[in-house]
Amino acid sequence: MLNWLDKYNNRFARFLREFLYRIKDDNVTAIGAQLSYYLILSIFPFVIFFLNILSYTPIAREDVLHNIILILPMDTQKIISSLVIETINTSSETLLSLGAITGIWAASKGIMALIRALNKAYDVEETRSYLELRGLAIFFTLALLALLVIVLLTLVFGEVLGNRLFDLLGITENFILFWKYFRVIISLSFMILIFTLLYRFSPSIRNGKKISFKHAMPGAIFATIGWIFTSTIFSYYVNNFGNYSKTYGSLGGVIVLLIWLYISSITIIMGGEINATIKFLDN
Q1: Domain coordinates of the chain in residue numbers?
Q2: pLDDT per residue over 48-62, tens digit each?
């Protein structure tokens, strides 16, 4: 038993040393700032594209937008909702449809920046063609879109849909209580799945040295839980203590959005660094 504990402690110490070294050597904070720049350019086209898809459904886009950005600080919610709703209300259906197509192309730039960050985490050079890289970025952009739909159906409308379905089937309250927590598990599971696929297929690793799902999942779990945790804590801090409007005036909401994207970028990149560290120690 003691030998096993010593072995575990030694491996954890090696992991921690290697992980901290990689964070410093790969300039994670600087790459996080670069990724934030691309995300700020892609987040609005992505949201507009998503809301345009909802225009073909009976779901109210304003209500959906409110629920999607609910985890963000209030100042950031106001900026995103006002800009997106203004774009939707002042544009024609033809322009919005065209914007939906170009929105995916623009939003995929953020994923391409993330792919470059993951390549640096694994210390590899990009060897894929531009078209292959862009296609991969578009695929993961669409995967994030599917994730939003799943989260929307389970967390936002899951309670309403579940209650109506269970009433029709005559299911007991115990199962309804189970569904209340299970729909959260569904959303978290799909978030972990998307991040796992991202960490598994994004880095340009070839020649029989592909990343296994075993080495992709730890970082995915970290990124999912870490992103939710840091976003919630940051939102609570900004809403209750950090009055950025007094310091930056009308730019307060923009500054908060940039800081949130920066924190999110570092969290996602660190997930890749965790996977790269585990793969390095196992080789």
Answers
A1: 2-282
A2: 666 666 665 555 455
